[in-house]
Amino acid sequence: MQRALGLLVRREHSRRELSRKLVARGLDAEEVAAAVDRLAEAGWQDDDRFAESLVRQRAMSGYGPFHIRAELGTHGLDSAQIEAAMDSFDGDWLENARDLARRRQGEDFAADPVRRRKAADLLARRGFPGDLIRQVTRLEDEW
């Protein structure tokens, strides 16, 4: 229980992630499951809170909704929890994508076809949807 609490004090963890880390440290799987259940009941561990936190962190780090959804899935969250976390994000995906493209390719990247392509490739790798990428990489006068 102390090891689990120590991990949760550092940052939020999903149930699956917390259990995996504790079992990897040599603890019994049944004891780990019981400890994680007690922590969840006490409010120390909450998958919904973890998911919302991860969405905010990744979005502010320049990742798009596709990447974030996939990462949430790797943490053992079901689709309803993932959708609720994504819906809780109150930021603007378009503005996040524009900021990322401008930081990496410069303010006037849309005027240069090579930098525009590089910006589109970056946004695609970071998990932004195609329609949003097209909006970001259009020439400024087309907005």
Automatic annotation (TrEMBL):
The keyword Cytoplasm applies. Residues 2-39 form the RecX first three-helical domain. InterPro entries: RecX_HTH_1st, RecX_HTH_2nd, RecX_HTH_3rd, Regulatory_RecX, WH-like_DNA-bd_sf. It is found in: Cytoplasm. Residues 46-86 form the RecX second three-helical domain. One of its GO terms (cellular component) is cytoplasm. Its main location: cytoplasm. Keywords: Cytoplasm. Belongs to the RecX family. This is Regulatory protein RecX. It comes from Lysobacter defluvii IMMIB APB-9 = DSM 18482.
